[in-house]
Amino acid sequence: MANMGTTAGQSELSARAEELLASMTLAEKAGQLTQYFYFGMLEGVEGPVGDQPREVQAALSRGGAGSLLFVSDPAQANRLQRMTIEGNRLGIPALFGFDVVHGLRTVFPVPIAMAASWDPTMVERAQAVAAREARAVGIHWTFAPMVDIARDPRWGRIVEGAGEDPYLGAAMAAAQVRGFQGGGLGEPERVIAGPKHFAGYGAAAGGRDYDEANISTSELWNVYLPPFRAAVEAGAGNVMTAYMDLNGIPATGNAWLLGDVLRARFGFKGFLVSDANAVRSLATHGFAADLTDAAARAVNAGVDLEMAISDPAYAHLEEAVAAGAVSVEAIDACVRRALEAKLALGLFEQPYVDEERARVVLADPAHREVARVAAQRSAVLLRNEGGLLPLSTERLRSVAVIGHLAASKRDTLGPWAFDFDLEETVTVLEGVRARLGGVAEVHYAPGVRPAQRMFPSIFDMFPGNVPAVPEGFDDEAELARAVEVARSADVALVVLGEWQNLVGEQASRSSLELPGRQLELLRAVVATGAPVVLLVMSGRPVDLRWAAEHVPAILAIWYPGTQGGAAVADLVFGDVAPGGKLPFSWPRSVGQIPVTYSHTTSHDPGAQGERYWDEPSTPLYRFGTGLSYTTFSYSDLSVDRDQLPVGETLTVSVAVANTGERAGDEVAQLYVHQRYGTASRPVRELKGFRRLHLEAGERTTLRFTLGPDELSYWNAAAGDYVLDTATFDLWVGGSSGAELGTTFATTPAVAQAH
Ligand code: BGC
């Protein structure tokens, strides 16, 4: 088990696990390896879950389940824990897991937003708050961070990750693991982190959720695996397997992926859980013959826990042993890891939570402050013609706030939020009203109705997840009213994007257009002549080609969370300046997907590298882009030597100055390009970044280091990591288009004297 404390503690813990294991029957072992959904939060809600909670309780009462997910009510957790402990001969407590993806009661900006902060320290702090709230209500383990690289925004789950880049993704993965877990399993007020979905889920064909991923060896190792490796190195106690086929083999039955790569190569020592029903699905894939075969093959691949909705495949493990398909030793290895996790968390000593204390922790105002700062730091300013932002309140008489999303509490929180408090959630409209406090009038008009999905999603069963269309909503009249409201205002804040149920799991789409009649609304508002600030509420890029030419100010606010509206007001009125940067290349249109800054050059036919005849090949906004209310300049870039023996570390220095009139944040980014070698390497790769705050006129010198970790890569022909001797270009600047550059060369390693 990763980071479980001292070696002495570890051996004592292993001995206790061994003792329990020695007295367990095969059926009890299978029970320990079974994790059930428990939709207790939907008890009493008509329809969706039927008898499922009763079935699970029956399993708990006979020792048939070692773990539950989706319980977030402390009283319910205590009740179910008691049932579990009393239901098994050995009194083994249950492990409670939950998707605490971006907060529990305090909802933080969605993960793609937090990645846009380029601020691992803030992200770690936010996830520590999430862990504190989760642990207080009885959750021991979160199915997070999601560290899947996503280069196809049609895939709705791009919102849950850190975007397109393995280096930024790895930094965010490690920060989140540290936030959730602290220094190691068993720390108070922390939970086990479960990076997911191992591996390659983000490359689903066509961006269609759950479809197969076919990823080249080079991309797998250099793009999709690094964030997992970083999460494991940060001590993640758990990893979740992915649903889909990876290069023809289901990830959940892939012994090479889970064994050779994750455990042997990356040194993962924790326990593995399947994604929901993914063990059963080995049969659906046409991989396992039946559920018995599926169970055997998952255990043989190293999947310790099966996450199941009902009828788990691991209930067939006894048959699988009898058939000689799986050994008792293999099952024991899984049970050992599950028990060690429970022991490490101290669940045998303290299986229950203090319900009164949970209420206090959930209400902690300090948590809301962290959420507000997180939302401020996540926003990305994409356009600001004529310095429209920040708005000065001095001559402001009237502000129009337009768009249904401006006033929708549920949408402000984003997907993967379940335990929120809508009462305290601050919408953009509320944030603006509170900030102006009567200094200027605020008039609101939704303009358009929420766009509807063509197909329902599993999340529809949660109350309020599908936005309600106000009764009697008259589309034409509302559009006209929004235009009127804009016409009589000094400025229009237009909040457009995607309703939160249009992104996330089971929310892939085939286009990136603003859903519904939102573009029409935007055009009509701009046509009034009122200065327009477009606030984009989304978890993926949407088509902003028109806006990028006609709307003076565009700020990506993502789904900003509990304190979202307050943070947006802080930004719009200049109490803080935006400093986030895009964690993905923002495509012009869906036809460009995938578009990434980090591609190889390949054949150059001459025509400025353009590939389409009907559209530029470049994205609308490049990776790493983001403006501030001030400007920054870079100078004095230098390396401490221009010849770097392989294995040694280069120091890069650069001066950054705030050349504007206001304080602001910048994210300095370092990119490298290996000019030649034993493989072709991308035109640019991010290899360092730092978010910094500079007062007006302030200048500072930054240092970055480039060593073997940054300069080596996976070479498909060698089947290993290599570090070539070659010439490298290097740039530092405020986006992936950074122009200030220099070069250095790697040279053969210096022989060690014996
Ligand atoms: C998702 C996982 C999630 C699990 C439990 C699955 O459908 O793919 O990411 O952790 O459900 O909610």
Provide a descriptive summary of the structure in words.
The protein has 754 residues and is an alpha/beta fold. Helix content is 31%, strand content 17%. It is built from 23 helices and 26 strands. A six-stranded parallel β-sheet has the order 5-4-3-2-1-10. Strands 11-16-15-14-12-13 form a six-stranded mixed β-sheet, sandwiched between helices. It has a five-stranded mixed β-sheet with strand order 18-26-25-20-21. A hairpin with a 4-residue loop joins strand 23 (713-715) and strand 24 (720-722). It is globular, with a radius of gyration of 26 Å. The protein starts with 6 loop residues before the first helix and ends in a 7-residue tail after the last strand. The mean pLDDT is 96. Beta-D-glucopyranose binds next to loops.
What share of residues are in beta strands?
15-25%
Main β-sheet, in a few words? 6 strands, parallel
Shape: globular
Within the CATH hierarchy, at the fold level, what is the topology of the largest domain? Answer: TIM Barrel
Identify low-pLDDT runs.
none
What is the CATH homologous superfamily assignment of the largest domain? Glycoside hydrolase, family 3, N-terminal domain
**What is the CA–CA distance across the termini?**
37 Å
Q: What ions, cofactors and ligands are bound?
A: beta-D-glucopyranose
Number of helix segments? 23
Count of all domains:
3
Radius of gyration: 26 Å
Q: Largest beta sheet: what is the strand line-up?
A: 5-4-3-2-1-10
Q: Which structural category do the helix and sheet elements fall into?
A: alpha/beta
Number of E strands: 26
What is the class of the largest domain in the CATH system?
Alpha Beta
Estimated helix fraction? 25-40%
What's the CATH architecture name of the largest domain?
A: Alpha-Beta Barrel
Residue-averaged pLDDT: 96
